[in-house]
Amino acid sequence: MKKLSLAMVVLMMLPFLNASFSIAEDERPVVTALLQTSQLPAAENSVLQEICERTQIDFQPLVVEGSALEERYNTLAAAGMLPDIILRGGKTEALELVENGVVLALDDLLAEYGPDIVQNRGMFFEQSAAYIDGKLYGILLNAFSTGNALMVRQDWLDAVGKEVPTTIDEFYDVLVAFTKNDPDGNGKDDTIGLGVTMNFATTIEFLFGMYGVPYGVQYLENGEVKPYFMHPNYLEAVSFIRKLYEERLIEPDFLTIPNMSCLEKLWNGTYGFYYGAPSGTTNNWYPGRYTEDPLPVMTYTWIEGPTGSAGSAMVIDSSFLAITANAKHPDAAMRLLNFLCSEEGNQLAYAGIEGKHWEWNSEGGITYLGEYTDSSKQRDDGVYCYWPTLRYNGMQDQLLTETTQYGYQIANEHNCAYVDLPYLPEAADYISFNPEEMFSALLLTQGDMQEEYDRYIQDYLENGGEQWIQEATEIYTAQ
């Protein structure tokens, strides 16, 4: 009998050896997820394809824009069709998900399939809103770079002969100059001091924070926890915003303008100030989104109010990623999350494919290539669309510009005090009061603002507000 050489045996086995490392696409485990992003990627894009190839998982994300996330989640939940991986937030919801058996405990899955997550985020497991009775049901998504800061155009300050403002009076003075004194030097009346939109309320939070009002959350007054709109300085903050609005020193359509339209004005050189996450304003959007030539020169500042307060409430992000109980392949779902939390996966999700989308430069940063210098082209091809910040202190933080780092320094040093609650009172479920509606009415009223405000607050207290305050105070004191 003729013997086969070792080399021949190896050659004959190569197809089988390769098959063990590359699963046929129709045999890969399917993992679904509901994701939120600022710009929808193309259905077929190279980043998604690369994730699938490197993990040998058929990753099928349902990606929605902005506020559509909650609507889509509720629709899927009502139909009993939740995807394998969901993004949720808050202790109250975490408890409901666990009590109703919607999500899985992740401890065993992490031990077997999540080594990178354990190494990178393990120190935060017990801080997760979904850490319940000694078990972890959701991976906390707290970020290394946290908070918001006020961007100001340094080149415009130079053009109008002003210093970086840090007080309300200085801020108002610069707003007037940015709006009236042609800071871009084009001879047109086409600039606005401050870009804000109620469709992304983050942009307006610091205007309340200057007066010590923690917009969107709660504060402590004489031992009671109360909603921000009952703060004794609330009406003073609204009066200042109304003054800016009436003098057209802020975006004149800020009550209705879509967030994307507001951002486009920022990128096109309309606004001199903008409040938001520095990682967007001077990092991810810069320079690709900005259209001016030369590019804008920006820095950051804080505006201190009469009580010494500045910034906005540094709310602890309670968002977490969970794997649902109806997932067919929970092991594959955890392997996918682990990949995206790894250094390799984080790099791919954040910046795209090295050599196609970007390359390292001599300064230790990255340079986007060809058409991908345009961030909209990046998003279209899947860059920054699939949990780019799952890794704590990942590529997104390591590549922050010096200006962006300064912005986060300010965000951490100047923020408005507030009361953090592990979960919200049950009364919140049936109160119909709309604080944004009250704010709009106060901004536009032709009557007595104090009287109108008092009527709104009385209505709130008589229709569940008193109960909310009582429950919130009990939750706070029980901590």
Strands side by side in the biggest sheet: 8-11-7-12
C-alpha-based Rg, rounded: 25 Å
Mean pLDDT value: 92
Backbone structural class: alpha+beta
Principal-axis shape = globular
Instruction: Characterize the quaternary organization of these chains.
Output: single chain
The share of residues in extended strands comes to 5-15%
The fold-level CATH name of the largest domain is D-Maltodextrin-Binding Protein, domain 2
Explain the overall architecture.
Residues 1-24 form the signal peptide. This protein is α+β, with helices and mostly antiparallel strands and 479 residues long. It has two domains: 26-144 and 317-392, Periplasmic binding protein-like II (D-Maltodextrin-Binding Protein, domain 2), CATH 3.40.190.10; 149-313 and 418-477, Periplasmic binding protein-like II (D-Maltodextrin-Binding Protein, domain 2, 3-Layer(aba) Sandwich), CATH 3.40.190. Helix content is 41%, strand content 14%. It has helices at 6-21, 46-55, 68-78, 91-99, 107-113, 115-121, 154-160, 168-180, 205-209, 234-246, 259-267, 278-284, 330-341, 343-351, 375-380, 395-398, 402-413, 435-444, 449-477, and strands spanning 30-37, 58-65, 85-89, 131-132, 135-136, 139-140, 149-153, 192-195, 218-221, 224-227, 271-276, 298-301, 319-323, 358-360, 366-368. The strands form six sheets. The protein has a four-stranded mixed sheet. The longest helix has 29 residues, at 449-477. It starts with 5 loop residues before the first helix and ends with a helix. Residues 1-21 have low confidence and may be disordered.
